[in-house]
Specification:
This protein is α+β, with helices and mostly antiparallel strands. 27% of the residues lie in helices and 11% in strands.
Amino acid sequence: MRRLAPLIALLVLVLALPAGASAAPVSARALLGDLRTAAPQGAGYDRDLFDHWVDADGDGCDARDEVLLAEARTPPGVTGRCSLVGGRWWSAYDDVIVRSARRLDIDHFVPLAEAWRSGARRWDADTRRRFANDLDYPLTLIAVTASTNRAKRDRDPASWLPPFGAYRCTYVASWIAVKWRWRLTVDALERGALTVGLSGCGRRALVPEPTRARIALGRAEAEVAGAEAPAPAAPGSGDDPHFGSCREAIAAGYGPYVQGRDPEYAWYRDGDRDGTVCEGARGSAAAPPAETGAGSGDDPRFGSCREAKAAGYGPYVQGRDPEYAWYRDGDRDGTVCE
């Protein structure tokens, strides 16, 4: 049996790729380099803000049913208004074969609460609805045993990985791809865990090439990002809103844009001529921070917490960080730029 172990492991990894994943593979490492680092912000989350499990095509099968049908190793029978009978599935998180759809949960690979913390709080209701029911990219939703889905809860890879070790490279790579598709941020601990998680993965760090999802901001967020809502993208020039500057684009969670790859590159000034604009924490020439004050700490001084966070700085705690005095503590909790 030991001689068969490598073959079994290889078969498991082939099966890990969901049905319909026909896009050309790309490196998750490259996608990770495009993700912006920012502190998570979870205030205001409510699962009901994401309208999930909708029947978008009106065929009687909602998004949950569609995932079960797409990922079934043995197709179930379908009766009435999409009642599934029989069938067989493989739960990748724990390497378990399941023969009843009732034992399965459909997991949002990036949980709804995590999406909220890393950018979805800025989205309008339609964008959150499309994220919660994303059938256009095969890695966004996955059928797994209810027990592993509930063990995962809303944790990122810094605090939870699947118990089935042979799937972990695929898990980390898929997490990165979904975050890249939906322009979600990662926090510092999460980035470290993702980087370590890809070590030694080889071809298992490849994912079906994601396309950028269309993101629309809620009205309040659009007003924060600029005096007016950003202009819509010109027809054929890309899906992103056209902001007045890279500073506004970064504050709203957009960028970076690469010359020759992203049509949005042409909208902004490439001050350092490195072929990338709106690169945020990696140094955007569009929004230089003020110098630090003498004796006031090592961080640059920005015009607002919004600008500091967009560049990857903060939070600052009263009595510990001299930078605390530079910004307004609106909720008087002793922390700014959180």
